[in-house]
UniProtKB/TrEMBL annotation, chains A, B, C, D:
Pathway: Purine metabolism; IMP biosynthesis via de novo pathway; formate from 10-formyl-5,6,7,8-tetrahydrofolate: step 1/1. Catalyzes the hydrolysis of 10-formyltetrahydrofolate (formyl-FH4) to formate and tetrahydrofolate (FH4). The lineage of its organism: Bacteria, Pseudomonadati, Bacteroidota, Flavobacteriia, Flavobacteriales. It is an enzyme of class 3 (hydrolase). It comes from Aureibaculum algae. It catalyses: (6R)-10-formyltetrahydrofolate + H2O = (6S)-5,6,7,8-tetrahydrofolate + formate + H(+). NCBIfam families: PRK06027.1, PurU. The gene is purU. It comes from the Bacteria. One of its GO terms (biological process) is 'de novo' IMP biosynthetic process. Residues 7-89 form the ACT domain. InterPro entries: ACT-like_dom_sf, ACT_dom, Formyl-FH4-Hydrolase_C, Formyl_transf_N, Formyl_transf_N_sf, PurU, PurU_ACT. This is Formyltetrahydrofolate deformylase.
Amino acid sequence: MDSQIVTFLINCPDDKGLVAKITNFFYSKGFNILSCQQYVNSIENTYFMRIRLNAEGTHISKKELEANFLELAEPLNFNWSVNYGDRKPNVAILVSHTSHCLYDLLERQKEGDLDCTISMVISNHDKLRPIAEMFNIPYFYLPVTKGAKEKQEEEVIKLLEDHKIDLIIMARYMQILSSNFINSFPERIINIHHSFLPAFQGANPYKRAYERGVKLIGATAHYATEDLDEGPIIEQGVERVTHDCTPKTLKRIGADVERLVLAKAIKCHLQNQIIVANNRAVVFPESGE
Amino acid sequence: MDSQIVTFLINCPDDKGLVAKITNFFYSKGFNILSCQQYVNSIENTYFMRIRLNAEGTHISKKELEANFLELAEPLNFNWSVNYGDRKPNVAILVSHTSHCLYDLLERQKEGDLDCTISMVISNHDKLRPIAEMFNIPYFYLPVTKGAKEKQEEEVIKLLEDHKIDLIIMARYMQILSSNFINSFPERIINIHHSFLPAFQGANPYKRAYERGVKLIGATAHYATEDLDEGPIIEQGVERVTHDCTPKTLKRIGADVERLVLAKAIKCHLQNQIIVANNRAVVFPESGE
Amino acid sequence: MDSQIVTFLINCPDDKGLVAKITNFFYSKGFNILSCQQYVNSIENTYFMRIRLNAEGTHISKKELEANFLELAEPLNFNWSVNYGDRKPNVAILVSHTSHCLYDLLERQKEGDLDCTISMVISNHDKLRPIAEMFNIPYFYLPVTKGAKEKQEEEVIKLLEDHKIDLIIMARYMQILSSNFINSFPERIINIHHSFLPAFQGANPYKRAYERGVKLIGATAHYATEDLDEGPIIEQGVERVTHDCTPKTLKRIGADVERLVLAKAIKCHLQNQIIVANNRAVVFPESGE
Amino acid sequence: MDSQIVTFLINCPDDKGLVAKITNFFYSKGFNILSCQQYVNSIENTYFMRIRLNAEGTHISKKELEANFLELAEPLNFNWSVNYGDRKPNVAILVSHTSHCLYDLLERQKEGDLDCTISMVISNHDKLRPIAEMFNIPYFYLPVTKGAKEKQEEEVIKLLEDHKIDLIIMARYMQILSSNFINSFPERIINIHHSFLPAFQGANPYKRAYERGVKLIGATAHYATEDLDEGPIIEQGVERVTHDCTPKTLKRIGADVERLVLAKAIKCHLQNQIIVANNRAVVFPESGE
């Protein structure tokens, strides 16, 4: 293998000696362990590890590494994945009318803050096309016409599959995705919900926040699952508000929370910091290697 | 009137010239206006004012002042109240098992940070008596026995009425108050709920927060109303948490949020900063007079 | 006057009856008072007011209004200014190498969140020209060559004056402005400093934050004054960091604080929410009219 | 060894294979690794580990364990310490006039939130004695008389040594400790400074914060070192303030930040979460075992 950073994500039943066994395995194969983050869920007796390795100086092939690792993994019942950091993930952004998250993501990617390729923007409206064009990103306008929602979804799925999209970002996409769509991309769709979940699930959270008279509003980035707004939470943020705020000012204040929370969540996903288990997202902090 | 600070709280339908009319009224009676805070709800077309006056040098009696004010207030449909700052409010604290809010309130009052008299602590358990005794506050143990909840409530109400209690603080009191109780003390009962409402209404919020995998937990201080946890929100706070937190650590982290949020809410109430309308609490900031 | 929103900013020595006198004045001229925010500095005995008026139905000219207001203002020693909301301020953005604040401001203005015209971007480097061009904003490249700093400043000043620039934003402009420059635009230059002032004044704040091992980093937006980083603070923000952060990650985390803090400060300035006195900025909250 | 939790803190030059070597060592001795937290400082090429072990089922003595560990530690240049969790640390609290941190710490300890024995309160004033007495903690009044500061310090040191004090908390102790005092208790004195260091080092931070017109105030808990307020930072907190705040209200708002920040820092110290190197405190998060 070249001088590259390899990341393994592992979760399994907790057991004595796991960290010693795993770190030994990689050490014996000649890897330098850059960071090794663990989490033990003592309630469910489960173990999670994110381990980052420098492959420099190893002479093992990917195939061989994975075959050898399987010998360790199987008896210990690992769920695991490996990322070799040698291919930029392809990302598609789904939007409707609202521009702030789209701008934010396109800008971060362009400036080198998000390690991915943004392959396309897909929308059920044509409104945000000029923004995609400013950044030279292909824009696909796939309107949802009455009675033809299913057909539109098929077109979206085809686009995503044809372009080998690794991550789908719902950047305020105001359509409910079907179970079929969701299940085609497990843990590969990130949605931003404009409230502090589980408060104000569903539509019009800012209007409802105004009516309830809350003193803080928030936003939540989560993996999309079949149950709307019930998926594993990756990141949340809040901002103080007062009685003085109207639904319109709440929306404006909330927009800044949304864009930050979504960008942080995507960064965590792209850096392989997340392991999902039992509908909860274990999000390891960025290691300061 | 003596050299005292008088606070008027006013809300009414919005109208042209309100601020000029009201401030003129007090100016013409010889009051010095220390601060004058307003809020216009442009959605509901309502007007709110908190005005603080120094009575020094005026020669008007309370009775006369109120009679004169009524002449202004009635044609303009004011809801209003006045506080002369000449009597410390009597406060009762209701608790069950949990001590952190009780300690916090007793300490703040003792150190002069809460402008009130804490007349008593009432509990359905005898557990926290030593804390009340440390601070020389009478402790009433009124257990809830099976089938006799109503009778206990009557005893509590009698205690509160006999001691002319102005404000009742539910500092983690784990009993649901009856509508009769609630309605006997409108906008005079403040509860601390150990979640960021409207998320996790009801019981066991920290356990549910763990299960939902949230990344922030919070607390909410609100006036108690018939619908549990649906009353006007006075103050909210949050703190970041991670996947690493167990329900037990969430509880500990949350305790610090609870105590701060409750103390802030009570301070706002005691300083006459709050006007409730339409189940929303208008909370004017402390004026820096 | 047309149906327009007029904003007066007033500060003066504190005196009895000020709010009544001022609100009466506007009421008697037929204005509807949309909001009236006050602040009394009881240490320095000064009074501050921001009053927003709807001119609909008044028949007074600007000239007449100001002449009449002077009769009230002079005996009471008002410092005051009035904004008729009938002209969008012209803004110039000064940048060097760093793009995040520039993107953020251009995007907010384009999306209608900043009520101004961005007339130009000026830089001592040519690097960020493509960003300005994406948003169709003229870009002026005025390099600072050795020994000719003064000449460059004169060119910048000429540009600003020729285009009648009302507000100059130093969006990470890495040049120290001369006293002459600063004093040509009093309270019209807003700078973003990438630390939580007064901590880490001067150069390389993130490197110094790393070395000091702080657990929070911040950013400060302030009016530029002769003493570098000593001007009136408009807005500040912070974000938690850990020992794990390198100067590079601090920089990235800080960038998000900077862009939010700068945008908030500029919004406050453009909405006439700020009165500066004694090197301190009184920043009235946005009124929820 | 009994069924006890053992914590090792290690820092050393970074090297390949450290995590494998260390975890193997403990695994081979029969320990169950409860958590293993690491940090690599890639700028200084140093490595830090906090490892928590369950000794249940091991048959090794402390002496043997330490002797064996030394064989691993010496060639790799470990700085290390071990805590067997079998003895509660003795804590002394130093105070002057201000009560809020003292109350907070006494209450947390009494309620079981701080795993230590509070052996005494020492003060240069007699004012806070009643608080110590409420909690049945011995109070030593050692006034600082003119020209006899050195003598008083000697008495304080003698008290601390006689009672085998492990941790000294300066809970708003308004005396500057001599170098001799500081160096007698390296990394064993925690101070709370009432500002967001390095802003407002030295005296009267709230007054200076008012004068500077900051929009956030803070507090910093740090190990005391010879250079006043320059020691390794353990924890910091902030709270928003406005122009409306006087030095007095800043002080009150700051008090709540101080007490939380100090309590968090002490908890981290007592739970062996901190390694100091190069005047920076590596503070591992609480592991959710």
